[in-house]
Structures are given as structure tokens and as C-alpha cells.
Amino acid sequence: MSPRQLHLNVNLLHSGVYPSAWRLPDSDPRAFFDLGHYVRVAQIAERGKFDAIFLADSPAVNDRIDYRSFTSMEPTIVLATVAATTRHIGLIGTVSTTYNEPYNIARRFVTLDHASGGRSGWNAVTTADAASSRNFGLTGALEHKARYERAKEFTEVVHALFDSWEDDAFVGDKASARFVDTSKVHPIAHRGPHYSVAGPLNVPRSPQGRPVTVQAGGSNDGRDFAAAYAEAVFTLAQSIEEGVAYARDLRARAASYRRSGDSIVILPGLATVIGSTEAEAKRRQDELWELVPIEYSLARLAGTLQIDPTLLELDKPLPDPLPLPVNANHTMFQGTVNIARRGNLTVRQLIRALGGGVGHRIIVGTPEQIADDIEAWFKAGAADGFNLMPDVLPSGLETFVDTVVPILQSRGLFRTEYAGSTLRDHFGLQRPVSRYAKRSPEVASA
Amino acid sequence: MSPRQLHLNVNLLHSGVYPSAWRLPDSDPRAFFDLGHYVRVAQIAERGKFDAIFLADSPAVNDRIDYRSFTSMEPTIVLATVAATTRHIGLIGTVSTTYNEPYNIARRFVTLDHASGGRSGWNAVTTADAASSRNFGLTGALEHKARYERAKEFTEVVHALFDSWEDDAFVGDKASARFVDTSKVHPIAHRGPHYSVAGPLNVPRSPQGRPVTVQAGGSNDGRDFAAAYAEAVFTLAQSIEEGVAYARDLRARAASYRRSGDSIVILPGLATVIGSTEAEAKRRQDELWELVPIEYSLARLAGTLQIDPTLLELDKPLPDPLPLPVNANHTMFQGTVNIARRGNLTVRQLIRALGGGVGHRIIVGTPEQIADDIEAWFKAGAADGFNLMPDVLPSGLETFVDTVVPILQSRGLFRTEYAGSTLRDHFGLQRPVSRYAKRSPEVASA
Asked: Is the pLDDT of residue A446 over 50?
């Protein structure tokens, strides 16, 4: 058996993870709504043999767009565009379980899976922010537990719809005029507290059997959801110890759902600032940091903490105690608080440590240093790979692909060619069998 | 001013409008879920300088898929794929107003408009069939009037969201760190009986101002909806007189909404079977007809009429009176009944006249005959162009482009090159101004 391989996913966060990324001289401020930008970044990732690109999402204006670039384009349209202009790379898009119908989402991802030859993945999110809720008839976001209950049922329905066509249901025999063997197309007849869906889907089974299900969310409910349904997770961890503890917890929870721990690929977020020397990398970080207006950083921090910005004083620590927010992104909240408390940081120092609003772990250094860090996490079992967040796109990714990837490859940690053609192949995940498929008598008795 | 020009749209109905299209020797039965097929057909239409391709849709299995090819792929994913592989042709996709959220749909089409450089169109349908309703938590379809009330409010919200960014709201000025001028990004603050949507959209204004709104539906409610909101309509008319009467009625209704009659492009459906001689065309039609299993045709006719198939006797006329169906497609129902009654046809003759389930007007003949027919309808004011439904795809479209289009061009009826770059340009529709845009003092006083 070949040694365990690293997985690399790039978070295609419009202009890059730094709020100031759009202000660098080489950046095109219009990139966030230029489909050509998304295609170019995906092609660079594909050149670097990455597993996948990932598009975060939120169906609302919920950041300070007066200061910064933001998630705007609807992800599945972007992924279809990228599918048509790439050949190998996986395509993961975020879609909310709170503000959609499961039939539509199952269908959209199976269509994307056909469009891409089996490269699609769905990042299921419950969408916590209040701005989104107001675009869908609610005056505030659903309570945390209620969102996850909906999300579980939603995902159950989506997975059942994925399975509603057996692999060989399509016949297409011209001589006998038999188009579909409808005995192999199954109603799902779901009736639950939130959804009633008859099925079947009106799309033949996806090339991957099921598009890959991805999840990001570190709360107790989020971990439980991931343990039950996710095949890859985007996580937030600031240290190897946190990463190892998370992995151990998640694999134990998965076992309680009778799932193998190997069936989930764990990908912590990793923001990168690369220089040919450490000093050069630090200068680049300083430049990015200085281009973030302080008004933006304060507003962003207040948003993550869900408190009034006037409660934040630049040269004092965070208010203590902080009220636990009801509708915040739990993972981002806890990560931010941990950084502040651990270093006993003032608000100004915290903002700097967060990269002006990055939120995930940032590593600033040479290609060699970054490769060392990645290898250490990977070998310690704190990560199966990373959800990479380049400081600036495309330049930060281009540098990673040209300088860090060759080191990882030379160490035997990362592929030099794609071995398979689907996202499941890249992630080393099995192709699921439809729950409705009857085993043939020969197989059953074997 | 240049003479009035014909508009041509192709209904990219998977294998073609004939239920037996997939059984012809040259047809690929897998075409309905092969994105490459959709791309090839769109590229042929673009070679023929067509205005647009159109994708019908239904979020359910609601035809006899044991016998025939069907609408399966989610339309906006297909259109994004086609956008990436074509340069000029318009991209119209069907999305239901009953089973979606307006924020998601506005966002999806504006994203598609950015992805295609201003070529997107949304065909708003209310989705009448019961099979669809069962995939979205209902036990039967909403009543006709209720569907249209929702559709109107849905479309109001979508149009307001289209307008929520003024053209010059995006700034992207690196020096001043000003990314968006948020005074030009407007909440829509919609609160209605069916939807509450705060807005704004999180996507800059579409290249077309608004993606083109399309509608198909000949009922009284459908016509009223079209008069209020549609910029292009797909209609069903069997004679020039019907076409003229429809156009007159629609333009009068539009006037009552203070809209110019010229602001709506009327495109009756036209199924074509082309041969180099009339006899050859008739032989092709016979072949297509003989390949439709009679069991399918009976099931399909019973479905259109919403009656029990056992009430249909092959060698007798339709039952008289027929119960008026509550949840059928009104246009298809009335069109079918009209053909039967006008010709005093038996069920077998009716099925043949319907082409085994085509439903729209079928013309069978030489390129010259088809061009003559199109010219006569166009000059009589019965059509601004046609929603073309080739018998078989891609072959029926290829023949049309190679033989009928040159005749229409030589008569000065149809473009020989694209004059503009957007779907609005092709259709001759104005680019709307955002309802939220303040006229500058200079302009206001001019």
C-alpha cells in the first residue's frame, strides 16, 4: 500500500484571505465578480495537483463591503464555469441547508457531478448570520440547535435522493424502446418534521455515486453533524494539539455512527504568507496588514464576537466576560477568543494576530518553513491535509504551487500526478452503493 | 431605421421534441445527461446566429421515462457550462417561482449574467404538475390563481433585487480603500403576503441591468403575468389568426401596465421536420412517428388532459364533454383539445397530429416551405420570431441552420452577424435603469 498522502484544497476566497488583498498593486479589485479570475485560480491549483477548490458562501451582504472584497457570485454557477475549463480538480461549493429545498440542492449537485465527470462536492452549512435570515422571511437566524436539526434532515433527504437512481437504471435501448428501467428508480417517500419529499430525483445517478459531502463547523452540534454525514471537514485549529484533539474526537463520534474514521478527510484552515526569506514574508504580511483600515478590523472583530463595536478599546484586552453569542459562527468565535486569551492580547494586538480579520491560523515564512509546518501537522495526525487560504489570489497560490508543492512532492507527501478522475479518487473516499440497490442472488450467496 | 428583424430561439429539449428522437440511428440516447450534447447544440445555434437557447424544466419525474428522454439536468448549471463554451448566444433557463426563494434565484441569474457577459434570461414558471409539488412538501399542486399570485410577488422581489445595486456602486479604489459606495446599494425592504426580503443582493448589478424575464403560459392569469413582467414570451398558436389575436391581446394588456407593446418579444413554438423534398420530410416524420410506442402516446395524452387513460379509445373521438383540469398546463390542454375538435379527430388521429406528444405546431417540409411559413407569420404580426423545436437534436437544428437560416437571411429577415453582445441586444430590448438610481441634477433639469 502506498504511504498516506496529503490533501490540499484551496479556499477560493475571491481576492484572497487578507481583507486588503484587493489593494495590492497586482490585484484586480473586480476579481470577486469576474468569472475569469475564478477560472485562473482553479487552473493554477490544478497545475499544483490540488484535490479541490472550495467556495465559501453567504446569501447576504454581511461584511463591511465598503472596505473589502466579499463572497458574491453564486457558487454552483462558478463551479460549473470552472468545470468547463478544467479537467481534474475537485469542485466544492457551499450551499445553505436553512434557505434551500433539498430536492433542488440534490439535483444541482448531481447535475454538477455529471457536468464535471464526478468532481463535485457540497459543503453543507446551516448559515448563522442574521443578515441572511432577513433575506428569507425571518427576522432573526434560527437558533443553533434548530438549524442543525433541519440540516440533518435536509442531508438525509439529499443523500436518499442521490441514491434514488441505481447505477444501471438508465437503459437507452433503441431496439426495445426501453429508455429507463423504472424498477431501478426509487421514490424516497420521506416524511419528516421539516421536509416531505416523494422523489425520485429526475437525474441519473451521479458519476461519484454521491457528490462528496463536506462540512465546516466545530461546535458540538457541528461535530455531530460531521460525524454522521461528512466525508471531508474544514476545521479551525491553531496548534497541533488542538488539531489532534479534534481529529480524535471526530473519529470517535464517527465510530458511534458506525463509520470508519478513515472515511472523513480532516482539513484545517491554513492562511499563508510566503517569501523567499522570512524577512520578505514578514514584509509582505506588514504590507497587507497596513492596508487594512482599522475601522474595518474593529467592525469585523465586533461582528465575529457579536458585540457592539464601541465595547472594543484598541489598547485594552477583550471585555471579560464576553457574552456567548447565539447566532455567531461558533468556530470563528471560539478561535478568536482563544487567540486573545492565550496571548493576553489587546484588541489592537488581537486584530494584528488575526491578520486584520483572517480568523484562521496564519503561517508566515519561506517555502521550506511552510512545508515543514505542513509535514509536522500531517505526521502528528493533526491534519489529513489543509484548506489553504492564500493571502492574495492568484499570487499567493501561484507562489505556493511553484515553491511549496515541489518540496512536499520531493518528500513523498503529495501526489505528482492525479491518479484518478473524481473528487472521491483524490480524497481516497469510496464510491457509495445506492441504499436501494438489491444485491444479486449470486452476490448475496457468495 | 433597419427593418424589423426576426428572432430565433431554440428549445434545447434534450434529444429533440419528438418522443422518439433518441431512437434514431444517429442519436445518442445518453444525450439528455451529457453536458457535451448541450454545448454542441448551443454552438450550432450560435453558428446560425440564433438569439438564444432555452431550457425547459420541471423539478420531478413527470413523464413516462420508461419510454422517452426527459428534462433532467438543472438548467442554470447547464447554462453556465454553455456560457463558458460560447460567445454570443443568449441563455434562457426555466426556474419555478413556486419551489424556490426569490433571493436565491435573483442571485443565480445575476451571477450567470456576469458569467456570460450579459446573456442570461430567466423563464419564470409556476409549475403546475402534482409530481413536482410532492417533492416540495405539498400533497398536490397549488391552485392556479394562488400560483400566479405567488409568481407575481416573487417576480417583484427578483426585479427589485436586480435593481438593488446601481450601475456605479462598485468603486474598487485602492488608494482610498473604498471598495463599494454603499449609498448606491439599496435594501429592498419587501414585506408581502408570501415573501419578506430585506436585500440588497450581494452581487453587483448585472451587465444587462436585469437578466431578461421570459414567460410561457396562455391562460388568463398567465397572460396577465406576461403583460406585467415578461420581456419575451413563449406561446402556443396553431394558426396565424390565433397568433395575431394573442399578440393583440398581450400588447393591449401590456399597455394597461403602461408598458410599450414593443417591449415584449412574442415567440410561438414551432416544431420542425425538414427534408430536401416534401416527400423526404414526410418520410422522416413517419419514421419518428412509428418509433413512438402507442402506450406512451396514450399515457402522454391522458396526462395532458388530466384524465384516466382508460377513457381514451383509439378509434373514437375524445370524450365530450371533457372535465376542465385543475392542475394541468392550461395552454397545452387547450391546444390539444382545439386540434381534436377542429379536425373531428379520433384519438389515434389526434396522437398522430400531435406528433406522438409534441403539443406545439409542427411544420413538415422543405427549407423553402419552412422559410415561407416563418415569413408569413412574421409579416402578419402573428410572431416576432419563433421558439424552434427541432424534431431531433442536434440533427434537426443543424439542418435548419444550414438550409433555412440562409433563406431567411437572403430575404433580409434575419441577422447575418450578431450586432450586440447581450441577450437584450439580440432581442432589441432596452437596458433598464435601476429603480433606486437618482437622476443627477443636470439630467433631471435637461
From this structure: no
Q: Is the peptide bond before B406 cis (omega within 30 degrees of 0)?
A: no
The residue of chain B with its CA nearest to that of A26 is: B174
Identity at A79, one-letter amino acid code: L
Taking 80 as the threshold, does the pLDDT of residue B350 lie above it? Answer: yes
**Does the CA dihedral A330-A333-A338-A341 come out positive or negative?**
negative
> Contact A135/B197, CB-based, under 8 Å?
yes
Contact assignment for A136 to B83 by CB distance below 8 Å: no
pLDDT digits (tens, 9 = 90+) for A409-431: 999 999 999 999 999 999 999 99
* Domains in chain A: ranges and CATH: 7-162+192-275+359-445 (3.20.20.30), 293-354 (no CATH)
Relative to beta strand B52-55, strand B7-11 is: parallel
ipTM: 0.94
Q: How far is A442 from chain B (nearest CA, A)?
A: 27
State how far the Cα of B111 lies from the Cα of A72, in Å rounded to an integer: 8
What residue of B is the nearest CA neighbor of A180?
Answer: B66
* Amino acid at residue number B225: F
Q: For residue B402, give the 3-state DSSP assignment.
A: helix
Measured between alpha carbons, how far is A292 from A21 in angstroms, rounded to an integer?
A: 9
Residue in chain B closest to A30 (alpha carbons) equals B172
Q: Is B291 exposed, middle or buried (0-12, 13-18, 19+ CB in 10 A)?
A: middle
Chain CA centroid to CA B418, Å: 21
Q: Strand A120-125 relative to strand A212-216: parallel, antiparallel, unpaired?
A: parallel
Residue-wise pLDDT tens digits, A170-198: 999 999 999 999 999 999 999 999 999 99
